[in-house]
Specification:
Distance between the termini: 6 Å
Low-confidence stretches: none
Mean pLDDT: 91
Largest sheet: none
Number of strands: 0
Strand content: under 5%
Number of domains: 1
Shape: elongated
Order of helices and strands: HHHHH
Number of helices: 5
Length: 140
């Protein structure tokens, strides 16, 4: 179900404001999706290197996981960006982000302070993006 604007936007006086809100929604969806589209292409272009990194983190079937996750985020991002089945797209991104945060960025396992900080930043980034995708899901 598409996000419904409040009653104030149905008034003719606010038609211009409604259009601006709709344009900002489109811009926001595209901006959000760009990160995942770029990442998806990285998954496909650099799958061997990414599979090696995933294997070092204990991910089973790392090459398949990299390619599968690349496809998952590409489909999710395109759905969000286009607005077609955007809620499904947002959920696909959550399905990618939460396990990725836990499996690929377990900062709690790091002993080196710099590595711990780097992993914590990436973990929190993924969790925050998952939260944003959940918000998008509720709006679409």
């Amino acid at each position: 179900m598409k996000f419904q604007l409040s009653g104030i936007f149905r008034n003719k006086r606010f038609a211009n404001l409604r259009r601006k809100v709709e344009i900002l929604e489109i811009i926001g969806r595209v901006m959000f999706a760009l990160l995942f589209i770029a990442s998806a292409f990285g998954h496909f272009k650099n799958s061997a290197a990414m599979a090696g990194y995933a294997q070092s983190k204990g991910v089973p079937a790392p090459k398949l996981a990299v390619q599968g996750s690349g496809l998952l985020i590409l489909v999710g991002a395109v759905l969000v960006a286009t607005g077609y089945q955007a809620a499904l797209g947002a959920l696909l991104l959550v399905i990618f982000l939460v396990p990725t945060a836990i499996l690929m960025h377990p900062f709690w396992k790091e002993t080196d302070a710099m590595a711990k900080m780097s992993e914590q930043i990436n973990f929190l980034k993924d969790i925050s993006l998952a939260g944003a995708a959940l918000v998008m899901y509720t709006l679409f």
